[in-house]
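Predict structure. Chain length: 88.
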Amino acid sequence: MPLGAYIKERLFSGCGRSASAIDRKTLARLTGLLGQSDLAPSLRILAQAAKSGTLPVTPETENALLRACADIAAMKSLLMGALGIRES
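Prediction complete.
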Protein backbone atom coordinates (compact mmCIF):
# COMPACT_ATOMS: atom_id res chain seq x y z
CA MET A 1 0.00 0.00 0.00
CA PRO A 2 1.44 3.42 -0.89
CA LEU A 3 2.46 5.55 2.10
CA GLY A 4 -0.07 8.28 1.32
CA ALA A 5 -2.94 5.79 1.12
CA TYR A 6 -1.85 4.17 4.37
CA ILE A 7 -1.76 7.54 6.15
CA LYS A 8 -5.22 8.47 4.86
CA GLU A 9 -6.62 5.11 5.94
CA ARG A 10 -5.14 5.45 9.42
CA LEU A 11 -6.28 9.07 9.74
CA PHE A 12 -9.84 8.70 8.61
CA SER A 13 -10.88 5.21 9.71
CA GLY A 14 -13.12 5.48 12.72
CA CYS A 15 -12.16 9.03 13.60
CA GLY A 16 -15.67 10.42 13.06
CA ARG A 17 -14.44 13.27 10.88
CA SER A 18 -14.97 13.42 7.16
CA ALA A 19 -12.17 14.25 4.77
CA SER A 20 -14.00 17.48 3.88
CA ALA A 21 -13.71 18.61 7.51
CA ILE A 22 -9.93 18.36 7.30
CA ASP A 23 -7.76 21.17 5.95
CA ARG A 24 -7.12 19.65 2.52
CA LYS A 25 -4.43 22.19 1.61
CA THR A 26 -2.38 21.28 4.68
CA LEU A 27 -2.84 17.56 4.05
CA ALA A 28 -1.72 18.08 0.45
CA ARG A 29 1.39 19.87 1.73
CA LEU A 30 2.08 17.05 4.15
CA THR A 31 1.62 14.41 1.47
CA GLY A 32 4.00 16.34 -0.78
CA LEU A 33 6.62 16.54 1.96
CA LEU A 34 6.32 12.83 2.63
CA GLY A 35 6.63 12.02 -1.05
CA GLN A 36 9.73 14.18 -1.43
CA SER A 37 11.36 12.94 1.74
CA ASP A 38 12.05 9.28 0.89
CA LEU A 39 11.70 8.97 4.66
CA ALA A 40 11.02 5.29 5.29
CA PRO A 41 13.84 3.85 3.15
CA SER A 42 16.28 6.44 4.46
CA LEU A 43 15.45 5.69 8.09
CA ARG A 44 15.77 1.96 7.40
CA ILE A 45 19.24 2.48 5.91
CA LEU A 46 20.32 4.64 8.87
CA ALA A 47 19.01 2.09 11.36
CA GLN A 48 20.87 -0.75 9.63
CA ALA A 49 24.09 1.28 9.53
CA ALA A 50 23.76 2.21 13.20
CA LYS A 51 23.07 -1.42 14.15
CA SER A 52 26.11 -2.68 12.25
CA GLY A 53 28.38 0.12 13.51
CA THR A 54 29.09 1.44 10.01
CA LEU A 55 27.43 4.84 10.41
CA PRO A 56 30.23 7.39 10.46
CA VAL A 57 29.48 10.13 12.97
CA THR A 58 30.81 13.26 11.34
CA PRO A 59 29.56 16.84 11.67
CA GLU A 60 27.88 16.40 8.28
CA THR A 61 26.12 13.23 9.44
CA GLU A 62 24.97 14.90 12.63
CA ASN A 63 23.66 17.92 10.71
CA ALA A 64 21.80 15.67 8.26
CA LEU A 65 20.19 13.76 11.12
CA LEU A 66 19.18 17.00 12.84
CA ARG A 67 17.64 18.29 9.58
CA ALA A 68 15.75 15.00 9.18
CA CYS A 69 14.41 15.30 12.73
CA ALA A 70 13.31 18.88 12.03
CA ASP A 71 11.58 17.76 8.82
CA ILE A 72 9.74 14.99 10.65
CA ALA A 73 8.69 17.43 13.40
CA ALA A 74 7.39 19.87 10.75
CA MET A 75 5.36 17.11 9.09
CA LYS A 76 3.91 16.06 12.45
CA SER A 77 2.97 19.64 13.25
CA LEU A 78 1.26 20.07 9.87
CA LEU A 79 -0.64 16.83 10.32
CA MET A 80 -1.77 17.66 13.84
CA GLY A 81 -2.92 21.12 12.73
CA ALA A 82 -4.83 19.67 9.78
CA LEU A 83 -6.60 17.28 12.12
CA GLY A 84 -7.37 19.99 14.63
CA ILE A 85 -5.34 18.26 17.35
CA ARG A 86 -3.44 20.45 19.79
CA GLU A 87 0.12 19.40 20.39
CA SER A 88 1.18 19.21 24.02
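Summary: The chain has a mean pLDDT of 76.
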